[in-house]
Structure formats: structure tokens, C-alpha cells
Amino acid sequence: MSSEPIRFDTKIAVLLREDLEPWQRLNVTAFLVSGLGTQVPEVVGEPYEDADGVHYLPMFRQPVMIFEGTKETLTAAHARVLSRALPRALFTSDLFATGNDRDNRAAVRAVGTGDLDLVGLAVYGPKNAVDKVVKGARMHP
After folding, report:
1. What pLDDT score does 7 carry?
2. First-to-last C-alpha distance (Å) of the chain
3. Does the model's pTM come out above 0.85?
4. DSSP string of 77-118?
5. Which class for 136: exposed (0-12), middle (13-18), buried (19 or more C-beta within 10 A)?
6. What are the distances in angstroms from CA 141 to CA 24, 65, 137?
7. pLDDT of residue 45 exceeding 70
8. With bands split at pLDDT 50, 70 and 90, how would you rate the model's confidence at 73?
């Protein structure tokens, strides 16, 4: 096993609207990143096993960077992620009022792209492209 640090040429980033409550930030982040592993399998590492042989599910193979910004920052990031055709997930304010996946999808489908009230966005791709998408956002404290 090599002791050299592993470097990634890709990045996973989550951008949250700055006015969310703490519980909303956690909930939105969990929902957003759950979509990446299903559509971009290379972001998921190998399963875990402890010293006693107990098995655990695999997780992302690299850190998830969390950013925050204004509503306008999210709108700009959304336009940039669409123009770059990067894998992405979104969370809109309407999803706080739903309670299941079917209703979540219907709530998003009911609103045009330019009118989505974004509260969160996840993106995966080459570092430089992801950095351009989240430009103007700041690291979550």
C-alpha cells in the first residue's frame, strides 16, 4: 500500500443557498450527493471492512467540497453547469413541502428551468470546470 497522497483531477462540489436552516443544509446535501453515485459510478470507492470482518457500504472515493452562496450565485452556477453539461443534481425550495421521490420529481417537473427556486446544487467533473461552476461561492464554514 502506497503512503503517497492520492490526488484527484476531478471534484465533487455541493453549493447551498446561504439562507437555509442548519437542518435544511444537511438534508439538501444528503439528497444532492445521493444522485451522483448512481449516475457517475467512478465517484464511488470500494466497500469497507473493519478488523473484525464486518462489512460496510462503499462511499465516495474523494472529498465532497461544500460551498454556500446567494440565490443569485446558485442561479449563475446552475446556468454554468448546464452550459458545461456536467453531471448534476438539484434541490428546489418546493421539495421541502413534499415527502417522497414521486412528489419531488413532479415538483421539479412543474417548473421551467429558468424559474426553479434553487436551494442546492451538486456537480461532478474536472476540477477546473467545477471551480468555474461554483465561482462566486465561498466555502461553507
Report:
1. 86
2. 34
3. yes
4. HHHHHHHHT--EEEEEGGGGG--SHHHHHHHHHTS-GGG--E
5. middle
6. 15, 11, 12
7. yes
8. very high
